[in-house]
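Quick sanity check, ATP-dependent 6-phosphofructokinase:
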Amino acid sequence: MARPDNKKFFENLTGAGKAIAVLTSGGDAQGMNAAVRAVVRMGIYVGAKVYFIHEGYQGMVDGGDNIKEATWESVSSMLQVGGTVIGSARCKEFRTHEGRLKAAHNLVQRGITNLCVIGGDGSLTGANLFREEWSGLLNELVQQGLIDEDAVQRYSALHIVGMVGSIDNDFCGTDMTIGTDSALHRIIEVVDAIMTTAQSHQRTFVLEVMGRHCGYLALVSALACGADWVLIPEMPPEDGWEEKMCEKLSANRAGMKRLNIIIVAEGAIDRNNKPITTDRVKDLVVRCLGFDTRVTILGHVQRGGTPSAFDRILASRMGVEAVLALLETTANTPACVVSLCGNQAVRLPLMECVQMTQQVQKAMDEKRFEEAVKLRGSNFNVAVLNVGAPAAGMNAAVRSAVRVGISEGHKMFAINDGFEGFYKGQIREIKWGDVGGWTGQGGSLLGTKRTLPAKHVDKIAEQIRKYNLNALLIIGGFEAYLGIMELLAARGTYEEFCLPMVMVPATVSNNVPGSDLSIGADTALNAITDTCDRIKQSASGTKRRVFIIETMGGYCGYLASVGGLAAGADAAYIYEEPFDIRDLQSNVEHLTEKMKTSIQRGLVLRNENCNDNYTTDFIYQLYSEEGRGVFDCRKNVLGHMQQGGAPSPFDRNFGTKISAKAMQWISKKLTECYRQGRVFANTEDSACLLGMRRRALVFQPVVELKPETDFVWVECSE
């Protein structure tokens, strides 16, 4: 549903007279608390009454103190807490008609006709059945004398909105469920730790991850850590897989690799529906290869811990969208589920998604497994380089490009140190094994510099001729964007630049036009969120303290604003939203009032270039002076710690996917532009940026992005 994205829309919303209840059901997932918090605060913001239902459907059936009105303060300090603070429980009684009748009575007593359910497909199916029976349940309550006819008229319709909380990411209709990214964080942390000890002793590790009917966690974690083999329930291996796996492991050891990692989803099966367990895999490796092999079962570690920045933001966005959906429902509106499509929160018919999810399991039970798709292509020379500041996830993108390119029959070349290395001839062929283990490493192993190509196009053209390069994949930030435009402009002078070129955005600042997301931004957000969590925790024994945190981003406020959302900040100062001394005064007054409550900690984020005069020191001194006697202040400049460290699971996965798609585009363009024994591409659509636009990855000619680019300040944002 299209909706204007402006303040007037929110000002016109009203939830006056409405009562909304939120519950979590089924298994817990990190990020559920962020969703609950968003529902409560958005509901209160629009004037509705919001209720907690503790212990899921069991609390709805039991009623009493399990259903309590929520306040703004009651959801404070929930963002960083894992699990669900309002509790979750399996409820057999709700599956019966009598149980649902009790639940209906408890809701009507409080005037609740809007229900936000956070759970899996079973929880959402139960909610839809409850909605369909609602009018009949009210009539039964009238017959039993528990409510009157007036209540039936007032509460005639029950509105349901669902959000999927499941670490398995097993629900059709959404790209990511709440909790999945955090579970991937737990898995990658364990795998990264295991790889060091495995390498020391030349061991093989077989890891079991959750996913009884869905192999998402296994597949993505295998991609993110560069595992040797992965087994998932949706795509059982072909007969004879045992020999093929052992050959692969043996070949890797022969290639001087000191360890092997095999990841198994807990529901992995073979073509005969026989379970493939970790012990079965271990025994196979020991028997056939004699390798020292160990098994690690991660279990409920994957459900625990604090939610990642991605899950906090995803759950918050979904919670807001859920409240908006409830405000816009009518008596005939079907139940919906809030999903993530690309980078956009969307509403989809709940039961259609549930039925699709169930059909997947049915197809698996009937052995209708998808056939593997093999990539084939022609032989061309493709070069990949990193440009601009380093960003976590760049190496995953390079690895993906190299291996997809080789799979399609191309010869891949690596260019070290960006455009500077390009004109100096720092170019070498890069092979499959050269990028082994790159996925989990931070920074840029190819090397990256900010040098632009305009002054060196003659030497770069010479290198293109020397190595017979047919296409370029450029991974980087705003300098990469400027660089590809300069190469495009040089086509009129040097025919060597008439070749397909594609840019993949990679920068912590997330300031590249044409893309909602950039590789590296999620890792930086996690660094900011983790630091803010620790800083807030450090004040747990100190009363009335406000922290001023400076983030990177240059003139782009993405890190400060989204980091503030994920960390639960009181204010975020960014370049895009000008502020003055009156705004600062208002924020000080807000914090002064806040310190009079039970919440005696404050957090303020400031983008490094948000204002030339209102610097971090100025804001710190202002808050310290105006808050004297009420609260004290501390400041912290996060600096380059936001740029370093191992990439997050999201950045590893995103870098892998977007780079693979870029290579597929290059293969297609090379085929289209190959004429009379050579590649010649001089159209605008042969120099593109691949970016995430709302719901999809989109190729956009860079010349079409110029009108939406602010060249005055963005080039300083790195």
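Posting the structure with no commentary besides this: Confidence is low (pLDDT under 50) at residues 1-7, 371-378, 714-718.
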